[in-house]
Structure formats: C-alpha cells, structure tokens
Amino acid sequence: MSEKLKVGILGGTGMVGQRFISLLENHPWFEVVTIAASARSAGKTYEEAVGGRWKMDTPMPEAVKNIVVMNVNEVEKVAASVDFVFSAVDMSKDEIKAIEEAYAKTETPVVSNNSAHRWTPDVPMVVPEINPQHFDVIEFQKKRLGTKRGFIAVKPNCSIQSYAPVLTAWKEFEPYEVVATTYQAISGAGKTFKDWPEMVGNIIPYIGGEEEKSEQEPLRIWGHIENGVIVKAEEPKITCQCIRVPVLNGHTAAVFVKFRKNPTKEELIDRLEKFSGFPQEAGLPSAPKQFIRYMEEDNRPQVQLDVNYENGMGISVGRLREDSIYDWKFVGLSHNTVRGAAGGAVLCAETLKAKGYITKK
C-alpha cells in the first residue's frame, strides 16, 4: 500500500465530486480509495453510478472506475476506510451540518466544499494564501466536538475568488468600500449546457443566496480568532450583484474600490504580482506558482483564454484604471470549479497536511 493518505469523497457522483476525482488523479500526497454517495448509487461501481453524467473535460480516471460506491449515510463504515474526507454532498443545509459533524466525530477530518458550516463560529473558512492562520481555531472546535483528530474545515464561496484575493493584496492601502458585480458560470449550479439549454444566449440576474455570501464571506476570511471563534472584519463594506451568464466555467467580477490611502497604478499592479502566501512558500502540490497575474491588454482577462491559468488555481486581473466616482476599478477572473470549489478544497487539505492537522489514522 502506498504512503499516500487515503481519501474519501462524500457526494462523489455530482459535478464537484467529479472535479475532486479528476484533480486527485496522480496526486503526490492523496489517493482516492473510497467514494460515497446516496443510497441509490451505493453498491454500484463508480462508472455505473455516474453512467452518462461524467461532466469533466478529461476522461474518468481508470483508478476509480471499479471502486464500489458506498452509502454516504453509513458514516462509521465509510470513515473506517479513509484518513480524511472531502465533502461535496448534495443535501439540505441542516443535513450537511449533521453528516459532516458525524464524520468529524469518527476522528475523520472533513474538508468541505459546502456552505453549511461556513458560519459555524469555530469552523475555519480558508483561502490558503490569505488566512491559513484561521486553522488555529480547529483546536477549539475539537474541544467542542470531543475529538482528538476529527474536525471540519471549509473553503469559501466560488464567487469571491476573483476579487477577495485582489483586495487582500491591496490591504496596506486600506480599501473601505467595494462594489462588485459577478458574472457567474453555469457549472457553479452544477450544470452543463446540455442540462440547462435555456441558459444558451441568456442571462439570469439572480442566483439564490449568492449576493449575501459575496458580501459577507470575505469579511470572515479577513477576520481574527477571539475566544476560540472567528470574528469577522468590519471593512471593507461590500455590495454585490450576482448574475448567471452563458459560460461553462469561470466567474468574472467587475469591481469598484475606494481606498483611504492613495495608491498609484504601478503600486497596485506590483502588489498583485508579488502577492503570495503559505502554499507558495511551502511549495504545495496544487499551489499556483504565481497566484495573481495582471494582464495589460484591454480585452483581458477572457474566460476562453484565461480561465485555466495556473491549472485553474490562479487569478487573472485586468482593466485596472481610475474611476470617476470610486478610486479604482478592475476586472477579475477565477475558475469557479477549480480554485473556487474542489481545487480550493484540495489546497486547503494540502495546507492542513503540511501544518500537521491531517495525518494517517
């Protein structure tokens, strides 16, 4: 048996579950040994359970095709086979909270793509380049759960990845007011154009719950730990509109920012290009070498040309210019199902392993 950590994917048949499986193919540290899903998929091979619903551009990895899918509700049985799990289950928020806690209480770390625990006070919500120190709250969470190695960690919403890292890179200039409009791909709803033909040539100016997440989640990421819980930051104030657009992968954001200090364009671009964090310092396997790149061309970043920058783990920024009402404005682009979903969670797990939170059972 290899020295790799044994990984389970909860909700492995859905779009994000499939993305986890494709990203973890040939991963140097992690090996998918268990896939769990609903009772209707349990007992089938992964290939049979997914059938014609494989949504990735790359073929299904051979190594997972014959894995027999387990029932995600058989928590003890699934947990016994793995060192930790990624969670991408499709259930109600209350059901997700309950099942993720149940796995954590079997002493199995849970790295979740779901939103259910993003506001649980002692659950860290992390973009590893921005706030890896929030993983320190895990010790308090373990006390609450009564565990020695089991815990839950989450990654934030996909929509904030194209602007929250940018604002973090500019922290020294004190951004205090932000207007952002996100143009979000249909894969964010777990769909392809085949599933959702009415999105072809269409825009829907509403995505349930997304605007609240886009306004509030960055503040939690920029927050601090106090008395064993994460306290969110007060600023910058963010107001958002979130629009579904006819794009398969890639969330674009048009953003306006007011600063207390008066940066030059050169300073702003310099801070973007130099911005890095723990994943880059530690050389983590999924870390982009350059997290944020600035593009000088007037017509970039573009989804078709730029969404896969740094294997989908990097962020592309362009059109930085002074604004007549706000101070500066820019356009950001991130891959919503790689950096914004499964890839962001894989990078969180790599960070947790590097920091000693995830080990062999």
TrEMBL record:
It comes from the Bacteria. It is an enzyme of class 1 (oxidoreductase). Keywords: NADP, Oxidoreductase. The keyword Coiled coil does not apply. One of its GO terms (biological process) is threonine biosynthetic process. SMART domains: Semialdhyde_dh. The active site is at 158 (acyl-thioester intermediate), 251 (proton acceptor). GO terms for molecular function: aspartate-semialdehyde dehydrogenase activity; NAD binding; NADP binding; protein dimerization activity. Residues 6-138 form the Semialdehyde dehydrogenase NAD-binding domain. CDD domains: ASADH_C_arch_fung_like, ScASADH_like_N. Belongs to the aspartate-semialdehyde dehydrogenase family. This is Aspartate-semialdehyde dehydrogenase. It comes from Hominiventricola filiformis.
